[in-house]
Structures are given as structure tokens and as C-alpha cells.
Amino acid sequence: MKRLPVADPGIPDVRSPGRYLLWLTRLQWRTVLAGAALGVVWMLCQALMPAVIGRAVDDGVTARDASALALWSGALLGLGVGVAATGVLRHRMAIYNWLSAAYRTIQLVTRQATRLGGTLPRRIGAGEAVSVGVSDVDDIGDSLDILARGSGAVAALVVVAGLMLATSPPLGLVVLVGVPVILAVGGPMLRPLREREQRHRELVGELNSRATDLVAGLRVLRGIGGEALFADRYRDESQRVRRAGVAVAWADSRLMGAQGLLLGLLLAVVTWVGARLAQSGAISVGELVAGYGYAVFLVAPLKTIGEMAGKLTRGHVAAGRVVRVLRTEPDLPHSGGIVPDGPAELADAASGLVVRPGRLTALAASDPRDAQAIADRLGRHADGEVAYGGVPLRDIADVRERIVVAVNEDRLFSGTLRDALTPGFGGPVDDATLHAALRAASAEDIVEAIGLDAHVAEAGREFSGGQRQRLRLARALVADPEVLVLVEPTSAVDAHTEARIADRLGAARAGRTTVVCTTSPLMLDRADHVAYVENGAVAAEGRHRDLLASEPRYAAAVTRGEAAP
């Protein structure tokens, strides 16, 4: 079996769904042509069988010539072997084309999702992303898979019409006229099928989004008694999807029914004309048998052409959704072209925050939303006048690798725990680095219990909230960026664990710039520098204990009215 593409999938043509499908076809033109050639030979071997049987009847049976009968029987056996051999090879090539197109599309969509980052959930619903990654890639694969059999079906129709014209012009004309009529009747039915398929896909995407939100917030919904309400809404949307699916099936069944009816009429006419010609002596008995065989054979290529039309239609709809994802641009460019000389000062003009390199800076805000907004600007997840070493952040190269913002909404991916803790850049990570990060995050107990090679379920569902938070912190530490921004990294852990993390974080990030957005006294007390933010701007700065003594607003924010330590 051929290897699937594993390197860069390339730059797709996203000007239209049709151009995207053509781009995929051009990339794998060798296997597409090979599949089409094998499909043509496979179908032609079947198309020639009625002619060989007719000659066997005339030259062998009617003429009572045993050698001629043996000769044509051998030819029929050869055609059978050809059908078997080319059928296997055609199927293998078609499956490769299916897998290659689907896999390449998955690569492109995954790369685009990584490129979009925080833009993805704002511009594309979770349900639509799921639909693209599951059903749409399937339909795109089908559109390339069907080309092998479809090419053979078209070639077989031409050859059969030619054979029938050579044998009997009336029979050949019936086929030459009847096939275009069937295609002309079926053509207008493809548009409503495409429109209904598009509507059905949109509703499926919306329903998937609803299901994703429902599962993510199930515990909260149960807590406020809203589970039944959202279940009713999900039920209503499910019925909308069902009705849209029925509409698609109805359009598809009308297309298939019309093709079946017209195909049956064509076969009846071919049979009737052939019988009349044989009765009048215009054709021989063998030619009549061949005509019947052609009439029966025509069912396969005509059905294949109808199937090809349906799959290409669905592939076009699916490609439209993929193109929409691939054409989406990030809200903010990820990087510029300036490479800084080394760790530098990070300054946010809107808040007045200045983060000095190589220090652990804590950001305590009276309103957590202010801290999150500053963190988004520092990581360029939101636009703002932020400078890195005096250079606007928008002009700095590789911002996403230099400045990592870790929040509690980050997900653990399924796979081994080792893979879940490995960042998406910087190459492989050795065990010593992993264990150092796990110790700094106070997550050694998790690894001791299950091991680094244990399987992690999607989003780390088997872990508690505190365990997930510690593992996310360990992953951020493994990334070891120039600047690490942590937003409430210890909100879900107990006080003893938080104390250990606070004691170890500074040492783990020695020489690197770290910003911790928190109001935890334990974390603030270990920081080199604390900035207190009120109404979106830095209101006071200094050491934690100094601020407790000199700034009542800071003390109220971090102690919540309790006695200061």
C-alpha cells in the first residue's frame, strides 16, 4: 500500500470549492490517472463479455464448431481474469485516492485551526469544525474515489454504443439517444439535492455545537436546574436536522427513481428493438444474445454515473465548508519579521504594566477580567500597544513561541501523557525536562500513579480539576518560552499544593520572564515584583508585603477582608 502524505500538505487553492477539488486532483494526478485507467480496463472487460458470448453462440453453438467455441470460451475466461485483476488494483488505487484526499484535507484543516488560534472559536462554531473533520472529509474522499469507476463507466458507454452501432445501427442509435436523455433529466435534480445537502450540513454543525456546549457545561446546568431546558432545545434542533435529512433523502430518492425509471425504459426499448431485428433476420441469434447482454450490462455504468453525480455534488458541498475554514484569517497576525536579540522588557501601554526580563512578576487585579485582558494583549491574542524591547509586538517574529499565555480553558489532548505534556513546537522533550516541569507543577504524584505512557482521554476527563490544572502548568513549563504568562494557575488546587508550586515556580523559570495573574497571597508572596491593577491600569507596584502595608485596596483584593499574613 502506498504511504499517505506526511509532509507539508501544500498551499491549497481556496478560490472556490471546485478549484479546491481540482487542486487535490492535481496533487495526486498520477494515482488518479492510474485509477481511471484501471477503471476503464475493468469496465471494458465487462463490456466486451456480451460480444464474446454472442460470437461463441454464432461461431460455436450455431455452427457446431467445437474449436471456435473453445476459443471464445477462452477469451471469455481471459476477460474474467482481467475483470478480477483490474478490479482489485482499481479498488486499491481508489481507496488510496480517498485516503490521500481525506488525510490531506485533515492536515490542512488542522494546520489552519492551529494558525487561527483564538480566532477559531469566535469565527467558526465547534459543531462546524467537528462536521468538517468527520463528515466533510469523507465526502471529499468519495469525490476522488468515484473518479476511477466513473471514468470506466463513461468509457464503457461509448464502447458499447460503438459495438451496438457496428452490429445494428438501430440498436446503437437507441443507446446514443437514450443515455443523453437520462443524463439530461437527472441533471436539473442535482441542484435541489446540493442545496438541501448544504442546509442539512449547516444544521448538523449547529447541532454539534449545541451538543459540545451541553456536554462542556453539563455539571453547571445540573447545578442550576437547566438540564431539562437545554435537553428540550437539543431535541427541537435534532428534529430540524432530521427534517433536513429527510429532505435530502427525498431529493436523492427522486433523482435515483427518475434514473431507474428511465434506465428501465431504455433497457425495454433495447430489448424490444433487438427482438424485432432478430425476428426479421437483420441480426443473428448471437448478436441478439449480445444485445440482451449489452442491455443488462448498461445498468452498471449508468448507475455508476448517477452515483458519481451524487458524490461529486456532496463533495462540492463539503469542499465549500472546508474552503470557508481555510479562507478564514486570524483576527491578528501571529508574527512580524523582527527577531529580538534576547529576553527584553515587555510593556503594555494601556495598563502601564512593565514586565522586566528574567523576573517573576505577579499581576493582581481587583477585577479578574482586567488581568485576562492584559494577558491577552501580552500574548497578542488581542490587539494593543504592547512593546517587546521597544519594538511593537506586532513586528516581533514568532510571537506565539516567544510568549506563551496559559489559561485554565486550555485542553489536554488525547494520547499518551508524555504527548499531552509536549508542546507543539521545539521538537521532542527528554524525560529529565518533563520530570523537572512536573515537579515544579507539583504533579509528580500523577505520573507516579499512571506513568508517562498512560493513555489520556480527550480533554483529560479522567483527571480531577486540580490534576488537569497542574498538568497544564507542567506543559507550559516544558514549553520554556522567553515569556510565560500564567492566568490563575493554582485556582483549583489545595493550599498545600499551591504552596509547593509557589516555592518551585521561581526556580523552574530562573533566567526567564514569567507573569502570573493571580490574587493568591501564596503566589504573590513569592513574586519578585507585584503590580496591582484597578480599572484596567496599574495602581501600585512593589513587593507583596510592602503593598499589604501601604495599599489598602491591594490588601482588600488579595485578602478578601481577612487578616493579612
TrEMBL record:
<dbReference type="InterPro" id="IPR036640">
    <property type="entry name" value="ABC1_TM_sf"/>
</dbReference>
<keyword id="KW-0472">Membrane</keyword>
<keyword id="KW-1133">Transmembrane helix</keyword>
<feature type="domain" description="ABC transmembrane type-1">
    <location>
        <begin position="33"/>
        <end position="314"/>
    </location>
</feature>
<dbReference type="GO" id="GO:0005524">
    <property type="term" value="F:ATP binding"/>
</dbReference>
<keyword id="KW-0547">Nucleotide-binding</keyword>
<keyword id="KW-0812">Transmembrane</keyword>
<feature type="transmembrane region" description="Helical">
    <location>
        <begin position="69"/>
        <end position="89"/>
    </location>
</feature>
<dbReference type="InterPro" id="IPR003439">
    <property type="entry name" value="ABC_transporter-like_ATP-bd"/>
</dbReference>
<dbReference type="InterPro" id="IPR011527">
    <property type="entry name" value="ABC1_TM_dom"/>
</dbReference>
<feature type="transmembrane region" description="Helical">
    <location>
        <begin position="281"/>
        <end position="302"/>
    </location>
</feature>
<feature type="domain" description="ABC transporter">
    <location>
        <begin position="320"/>
        <end position="560"/>
    </location>
</feature>
<keyword id="KW-0067">ATP-binding</keyword>
<dbReference type="InterPro" id="IPR017871">
    <property type="entry name" value="ABC_transporter-like_CS"/>
</dbReference>
<protein>
    <submittedName>
        <fullName>ABC transporter ATP-binding protein</fullName>
    </submittedName>
</protein>
<feature type="transmembrane region" description="Helical">
    <location>
        <begin position="29"/>
        <end position="49"/>
    </location>
</feature>
<dbReference type="Pfam" id="PF00005">
    <property type="entry name" value="ABC_tran"/>
</dbReference>
<dbReference type="InterPro" id="IPR039421">
    <property type="entry name" value="Type_1_exporter"/>
</dbReference>
<feature type="transmembrane region" description="Helical">
    <location>
        <begin position="255"/>
        <end position="275"/>
    </location>
</feature>
<dbReference type="Pfam" id="PF00664">
    <property type="entry name" value="ABC_membrane"/>
</dbReference>
<dbReference type="InterPro" id="IPR027417">
    <property type="entry name" value="P-loop_NTPase"/>
</dbReference>
